[in-house]
């Protein structure tokens, strides 16, 4: 017995194909929003079958593929690569069945004109003879990339980078390549990760000139002249220079004293010239200089010859071996005291036939009270009272003395090298 079983081999109806596009709309930024630097763009997309991907278009040009974050698709858009302008933004969602949908577009405005980091100023520059340290306040910019220190020769001059510092925690820079003796301007540039920059105010650096010293009036010490001045206490002190000037408004032309020791604040000179000007120059390590007050030395008037005594005519002894003494005097005074008179005497000039001076001999005069004190063998000064201002000498005339007409020119000089006006007398020796 055969049993036949009938089977229904007809196919079940096929599943209907998905042709419904997903839903998609932008959630950020908002329409008309002004954006800058790094912009977070988000979109919401939904589909029954599931979303495959979401793309973002700027002015109809695909720029980014969104990343799924929770229920949104997100992209970070660097607006600094675009000019400041208005842009159209759209999102395109595609589901697993390759159905796509485009969101409603929105306009956003890119404006990076204020995206530069806040400017920072150099707050201090310190230095000594070996190093210089530049200090600034830290930047509060979250996107800080680097600092640069710039230098220029003038405030509006061309700036040159001397160092780039990528560590945002660093707020100082030390260098040995510097010279504060020359005016320089230093600047701090702040750079963010988008290469936006800002530069603070220029910091002018110039070493201050040395603290000038004060030159005191001269003092007489044991017949010598002592200069003294105040002490320069600057850390970069190098030297003192004491100079003499011929005129008050001239540059120094004669150096009297030089020292590299800041404690050397006096100089004793054997003599100094009146009607001259004196000044101390202080120089520092950087070659900068300062000048003291100008000291005008005034020793008062020079000595004055009141009168002289000398014979008009002198006759030589007739024979050899005989000396005749003639007392020659000059009454001299000095406003600063007779003790300041250093030299007194006269120069004997032979008057030639054309009334010019020929050979000369100098004779000293003495106010020593040395009537009985030999000056040299055979004669004394002939002065009877020391310190009365009458300067004397007994000159020796003998047969060897040349017969001629002589001009005797009397002068006196004080310890400050001030000379009296000359007084001349004519003497005939026969």
What does this structure look like?
- The chain has strands at residues 23-28, 34-35, 38-46, 51-58, 61-65, 67-69, 72-78, 85-95, 100-102, 106-110, 122-127, 132-136, 144-152, 160-165, 172-175, 184-192, 197-199, 203-205, 219-221, 224-228, 237-245, 254-259, 266-269, 277-284, 289-291, 295-296, 304-309, 313-314, 323-333, 341-351, 357-364, 374-376, 379-380, 390-398, 404-414, 423-429.
- Strands 2, 4, 5, 8, 9 and 10 form a six-stranded mixed β-sheet that branches. Strands 13, 14, 16, 17 and 18 form a five-stranded antiparallel β-sheet that branches. Strands 21, 22, 24, 25 and 26 form a five-stranded antiparallel β-sheet that branches.
- The chain is 0% helix and 50% strand.
- Mean pLDDT is 90; it is low at 1-7.
- The protein folds into four domains: 23-110, Immunoglobulins (Immunoglobulin-like, Sandwich); 122-205, Immunoglobulins (Immunoglobulin-like, Sandwich), CATH 2.60.40.10; 219-296, Sandwich (Immunoglobulin-like); 304-429, Immunoglobulin-like.
Q: Work out the helicity level.
A: under 10%
Largest sheet: 6 strands, mixed
Question: How many E-type strands?
Answer: 36
Query: Which geometry do the CA atoms define?
Result: rod-shaped
CATH class of the largest domain: Mainly Beta
Q: Which regions have little confidence, pLDDT < 50, spanning 5+ residues?
A: 1-7
